[in-house]
Structure formats: C-alpha cells, structure tokens
Write a structure and sequence with these properties.
With about 625 residues, the chain is α+β, with helices and mostly antiparallel strands. About 55% of the residues lie in helices and about 15% in strands. The chain is built from 17 helices and 13 strands. The strands form 3 sheets. It has a 5-stranded antiparallel sheet. Strands 7-9-10-12-11 form a 5-stranded mixed sheet, with helices on one face. A 3-stranded antiparallel sheet has the order 8-6-13, with helices on one face. Strand 11 and strand 12 form a beta hairpin. The longest helix has about 50 residues. The N and C termini lie far apart (about 100 Å).
C-alpha cells in the first residue's frame, strides 16, 4: 500500500463503518415498530422515523442531564428541567412502539415540546423570547403522522404554549429571568443549538418518510405497468356522466387504437348502435347498485384507419369507493375479449339446432311410416280374427288355427308398437292434446285393473288396488292418465313371474297425488335405471331376452307425465321387484274442463320447441 493512499483508505473505512452502523440501527428500529404497522411500508416508515428521532433526542438529553447537575451554577435549574422535558420524548417513542398509536404519540411529543417552550419563555422574557419560534415546528412535525387530527391537536397544544408565554409577559406568572443574567448568552446559544438539532431531526424524518412514500409509489407504478402490459383486458375509469377518464394500454391490442382515443366519448362511439342502450343502462346500474356485468360489441380498427368489424366483449363494472376513486372518477370497467367464446356458443347453437332438426325429421319419418302401417295392420288383425272365430266355416287343420292365432297376436303387438310410436311423436312435437277435467282416482284405477285382469290371470298373477280414502279429484286428461296406468300395469304383468302380485294404488302427498304400480317381479339393475324412459331403450337388451317389447311404453308415460307438470320415479332392486310412482299436481277442484299447457322437460322439450317455431 502506498503511503499517499493511507488517508483515503482510512476515510473509506470510516464511511463503511458508519454505513454498517446505520444499517444495524435501522434493523434495530424495525424490531421496535408495532406489528400493526408492519403490513404497510409507508406506515412502517412513519413509525420508524418517529421512534428513531425521539429515541435519539431523548437519550441525548438524558445523557447530558448528569453533566448539567454536576455543572451547577445559576442556570442549573433551568438546564436540568429543560433536559428532563426533552428526555420525556423517550416515553413517547416507547408508547408508540408498544401500542402502535402514532397519533397519540405525536400528541404526547407536542405536549412535551409545548411545555419545554413555556419553560424557556418563562426564563427568557415571555412573548419576546426567541423560543416562541419552536411552536411553529410542533404542527409541522405532526404532519408526518399523515392524520389531520394529529395536526389539529398539536396546533391546539402549541397554542396553549403560546398562552403560557403570554401569561409570563402580562405578569400572571412570575419570571425568574434575573437568575440567568450572568449566563444569558450561554443559555441562548444552548437553546439555539437544541433548536437546530431538533429541527434537523424533523427534517431527517421528513426526508425518510418522503423517500418511503416515493419508493412505494414507484413500486406501485411498476407493478401496474407490468400488469397493464401483460394483460389483454382493457381497464377504464369513467366519470359520473359515463365519459372515459382513463384507459389502459391494452386498447391497442384489443381495438387497434391508442388508449387516448377512448377518452371522453371515444369508447361510447365505438359501441355498436344496437348495444348502446344496454351499455348506458349498465353504467347507470353500477352507479346506483354498485356493480353490473354486460356483453356488447365494440368496433375494432386495424392499421389506424381501416375498420375491421365488431368484436364481442364482456364488461365487468364496479363503482369506485371514496378511498379508491381518483378525482371525479366514479366507475371502473374491465373489458375482456369474448369473441372466441361467442364463436363457440354460435357453433354449439348451430349443432344443437341441427341435432334437433335431425330428431324432428326422424320423428316425422317414424310417424309417417307408422301411420302407413296402421291401415294394413288393421286389415290383418281384423281378417285373422274372423278366421280364428271360423265365421265362414271351420278350418280343416288345427295347425291353420294355430297359425291364424299367431298372426293375430303378432298383428296386435305390431299395432301397439305403431300406436306407441305415434303417441311419442305427438308428445315430442307438442301436438298431443291434453284436455284436463276432474277425475275420481279410485274408479279409474278399478277400470284399468279390469282391462288387465284377463292378461294377469293368464300369467298367473294377482291384481289388487291400494287407494287412500278421501282422495280429492285429480284434474288431468282422463285418456292420458288411463294410458299411463295401462302402460305401467302392462310392464308389471310382463316382468312378473307366475304367482306374483301387482298392486296399483294412489295416495296424497301434499298438494299432489301419487299414483304407483308395485310388483314383486324380476326387478331392474341399478346401472339400467338412469336409461329407462329413453325411447327404444330396455333394461334387457340381449339376444336371449325373455320378454318382448320396444322400450316405448315407459317413454310415452314419461312424456305424458311431463305434459301434466308431474314427475316420474322408479325404485327397483334386482330380484325384489319394482315400484313406479307418478306424482301429479291436484290443480285445484274446478269442475270446468281446463286446457293444460304442455310443460315438456328432458328429451321431449327440444322437439316441441322446434315444432312450435316451425
């Protein structure tokens, strides 16, 4: 090391040590800040500067206090009391550190300073004392708190100090100024040095809080610019009249224009004419209710002047609170591009419409084919019945009788399938006329059991009813209700082995009536229950199934129940039997026939909507 460089290196070492000491002091002060202020960097800086300056000033005064006592002299009393009052600043710092109440801490500091000024003016001439200028520092220091009540309170406390000085000048309080005659200049110099030091601490606090505030502002600005540059959503702030006061830079990516072009009425002029009333209503609702969401179209521009049509956007509007509003801004809006979602919705609607049209076409084809089959089927059934009754003479061979019987049964089965297809087509198309009238439930159930009695006896089954007494009349279409019960009874007869029992009953459930058909047949597997009620779907679909059928009977029941605004429930356990419950609303006790409005749900609704639209 060169001799000439020793002073420079020594000076650099001192600077490094001072910086290290400052950092350690700063870390120590951070530990003294109350936890309630640790979440806000600016508030933490205010607390730290208050605690640090008051600890330094107060501890310095307490260190000088023993020296003043030992020095003695005519000014000893004045100096000891003055240093003691300055030392009270340590108590204010401790209070803020323990409680986190910065406003109260500033008021305590202002009180000790005001008393100190009164003490100095008591010895130095009252209103003519040079110490009165210190009172102006009290509200300035309180401004560092950031609370108006601290400034007002400190100013009032300073005014009390001024009043004390006035009492000294007017002789209300006796002044011991003669005791300082020999050391007046020394006291004046000391108090001026104290004033300079105290003012320097206040200036350092101002610089510290200002730097923290600027750092916080720059960090917030940096984060905002990062979010604004990374986000494709436009953020706008609106005045109470709807004009745009601010628009984020994302306007260039979404609309192809500078954000400044959206200011004022720029954004409104880009809203599609057909969407402008809804846009204005949404802004009005936000001002009155606090929030609103709307979808509308905005004109997109490319290359600065070439219009490229409109783009669908979604706007989420929120009313700004008094704390978050800037100037006269009242509403914040986040505008998001939803063109992709709108395209997917259009494709989905188109695909759904195509599927519904295909379903309607399928239903029409089935209905037309079924209608054309009914005429020859009626002839086949009628003539086979005549042949079976041997009206035109006996058949010579028993095999001919058997064949005629099989032809008749096959024709009736096929006719039933055709009728089910036609009924299903009418229900899906919304053309099934439902004429509602009051119906006695018990007689209807008896008639349905009489119709199924012969088939049940042939299969060795027992039929009975279980009707709750005093049931009200059910307002429904009698023909549709009979078909519901007959289809359910037919399924139970078909899927119940010989010796079994089928119960058809009714009971009241609230303002509805539940019709049920319960059997102890083969039951249904849990995996098959959700599929039942779908046209042409059966639980037993194998090639070796024992029971004939097309799976349309339960579908017709489901559609008729939906037309009455009711519900269908199937409870079954494999090998234990099945209970099908149809719940229908009573719809009052009116005797006048009522035309029910179809209330289709599930599979019947799309086709019905298409049929009505066509």
């Amino acid at each position: 090391m060169k001799p000439g460089s020793d002073p420079a290196h020594a000076m650099w070492g001192v600077v490094l040590r001072i910086q290290e000491l400052v950092r350690s002091i700063g870390a120590s002060l951070d530990g003294l800040v109350h936890d309630g202020a640790a979440h806000d960097p600016l508030l933490m800086a205010r607390h730290r500067s208050f605690i640090g300056s008051h600890l330094v000033g107060g501890l310095a005064a307490l260190v000088l206090l023993p020296i003043a006592v030992l020095a003695g002299g005519s000014s000893a009393v004045f100096t000891v009391v003055a240093l003691s009052l300055v030392g009270l600043q340590v108590l204010a710092a401790a209070y803020v550190s323990r409680s986190g109440q910065l406003v109260v801490g500033h008021l305590l500091s202002a009180t000790s300073m005001s008393v100190l000024v009164f003490w100095v003016t008591l010895w130095t001439g009252g209103l003519s004392s040079f110490a009165l200028l210190w009172l102006a520092v009290i509200p300035v220091e309180a401004a560092l708190c950031g609370e108006r009540k601290a400034i007002v309170g400190s100013a009032l406390i300073g005014a009390l100090g001024l009043a004390g000085a006035a009492m000294v000048s007017f002789g209300v309080v006796a002044s011991p100024a003669a005791a300082l005659a020999d050391s007046h200049d020394l006291v004046a110099a000391g108090t001026c040095l104290f004033a300079i030091g105290y003012t320097a601490l206040v200036a350092i606090r101002i610089q510290h809080v200002g730097k923290a505030s600027e750092t916080r502002w720059r960090q917030g600005e940096t984060r905002y610019r990062l979010l604004a540059s990374a986000s494709d959503d436009i953020v706008t702030c609106h005045l109470a009249n709807g004009d745009v006061a601010y628009a984020s830079p994302a306007a260039g990516r979404l609309l192809g224009v500078m954000s400044s072009e959206l200011h004022g009425e720029g954004l409104f002029r880009r809203v599609h004419v057909g969407d402008r009333p809804a846009y204005l209503n949404a802004l009005s609702d936000t001002l009155h209710e606090g929030h609103a969401d709307i979808e509308f179209r905005l004109r997109r521009t490319e290359d600065g002047n070439h219009a490229d049509g409109f783009v669908w956007v979604e706007a989420s509007m929120r009313k700004l609170s008094a704390e978050t509003a800037v100037g006269e801004e009242r509403v914040s809006v986040v505008i998001r591009d939803i063109a992709g979602r709108k395209q997917q919705e259009a494709e989905l609607i188109h695909a759904r419409a195509a599927a519904e049209e295909a379903s309607v076409a399928k239903t029409r084809i089935l209905a037309n084919v079924s209608h054309e089959l009914r005429t020859p089927l009626n002839a086949i059934i009628g003539f086979s019945d005549l042949l079976g009754q041997e009206i035109f003479g006996p058949l010579p061979d028993d095999r001919q009788k058997e064949y005629v019987r099989l032809i008749h049964e096959a024709g009736e089965h096929l006719l039933q399938v055709v009728n089910d297809i036609l009924d299903m087509a009418k229900i899906e198309a919304g053309n099934f006329d439902v004429l509602a009238e009051p119906i006695e439930v018990a007689p209807l159930l008896d008639r349905c059991l009489q119709l199924m009695q012969r088939q049940a006896e042939t299969n060795g089954l027992n039929l009975r009813t279980d009707v709750e007494p005093n049931l009200p009349e059910l307002v429904a279409d009698q023909r549709a209700l009979r078909q519901i019960l007959l289809n359910l009874l037919s399924n139970s007869v078909k899927f119940t082995d010989a010796g079994g029992e089928i119960v058809c009953g009714a009971k009241r459930t609230g303002r509805s009536i539940a019709l049920f058909v319960r059997d102890d047949g083969i039951g249904i597997a849990p995996a098959d229950l959700p599929r039942l009620g779908t046209p042409f779907v059966q639980a037993d679909t194998g090639y070796n199934r024992r029971h004939e059928g097309t799976g349309l009977g339960l579908s017709v029941v489901k559609g008729l129940v939906a037309l009455h605004g009711g519900s269908l429930k199937i409870d079954s356990e494999l090998g234990m039997g099945t209970t099908v419950t149809v719940t229908l609303p009573c719809r009052g006790d009116s005797d006048a026939p009522t035309r029910l409005r179809p209330a289709l749900t599930g599979d019947a609704a799309p086709a019905a909507r298409l049929a009505k639209r066509a």
